[in-house]
Structure formats: C-alpha cells, structure tokens
Amino acid sequence: PVTDGSRELHSLCAQLEFLLQFDLKEKRSFFGQRKDYWDFLCQGLARCRQEHEGIHFVTSLDKLKTPVGRGRAFLRYCLVHRQLAESLQLCLLDPESLCEWYYARSPFLSPKQRAEILGSLYELDCVTFHLAL
C-alpha cells in the first residue's frame, strides 16, 4: 500500500493539483476570497445532485481554512476510497461548466486529453492508499 511517507504519493498529489489548477480562471467568492479547484469540484459534484461523502468529510474538518487545503484533503480522501476518477469524471461532464472554470489550454477541455487523464486515474483504483485523513 501507498502511505504518507511515499515519495510517489507526494509527486502524484503535486501533479494532480497542478493539473486541476492549470489554466483555471481566477474567480472570487462574494467576500473576495480566491476560488480554487476545490470550488470547481464542489460545484461539479453538487450539480450531479448527489451528496459526495468526500465533500461532506472535508467540510467537517475545522482545521482546513483554505480552498487549497480542502482540495488537497479531498484528493487524499478520494485516493483512499478509490473515488478519484469517478468524482473527477462527474465534474467534467458539463462542457459549459468547464468553460466557466477553465481557459482554453486546460487539458480538461480537450476530449482526448480528458479521456487519457481519466483513464490513468481509473488505473489508480487498483492501488491501495493508506493515508492519514
């Protein structure tokens, strides 16, 4: 199993975060706080009209104060529960939402690149992650 001490884990999480932040449009909340990929994931999963346990778990953690921290916790939760690919795929279903959140260079806007990314993430479902949540 992959644990918190794994260098590969840190590299994987950094790459996932880079991918989710790449060409992300700058958006602000009502109070002026910069939105991040966490907000994109929340909106995408809420649109599917099903409560995602990962979102519920992360929002219940009082120590997490920033969207980036919440996003990182969500990625870890999804890796442990083998839900990362499915969760991201649900967020990527709506082309209008993707254009609202990402500029044209985002690989999520390319059907071929999006399929490759999701295919790779589904392969991670075979890996066991033992991470502190």
Automatic annotation (TrEMBL):
This protein's record includes keyword Zinc-finger: yes
GO cellular component: autophagosome; late endosome; lysosome
Annotated InterPro entries: Run_dom, Run_dom_sf
Coiled coil region boundaries: none
Alphabetical UniProt keywords: Autophagy, Coiled coil, Cytoplasmic vesicle, Lysosome, Metal-binding, Zinc, Zinc-finger
Regions crossing the membrane: none
Subcellular location: Cytoplasmic vesicle, Autophagosome; Lysosome
Superkingdom of origin: Eukaryota
Pfam family, one: RUN
GO biological process: one example: vacuole organization
Primary localization: cytoplasm
GO molecular function, one term: zinc ion binding
Annotated ranges, domain RUN: 3-133
Function comment: ARL8 effector that promotes the coupling of endolysosomes to dynein-dynactin for retrograde transport along microtubules. Acts by binding both GTP-bound ARL8 and dynein-dynactin. In nonneuronal cells, promotes concentration of endolysosomes in the juxtanuclear area. In hippocampal neurons, drives retrograde transport of endolysosomes from the axon to the soma. Positive regulator of macroautophagy in dendritic cells. Increases autophagic flux, probably by stimulating both autophagosome formation and facilitating tethering with lysosomes.
Protein name as it appears in the record: RUN and FYVE domain-containing protein 4
Organism: Pheucticus melanocephalus (Black-headed grosbeak)
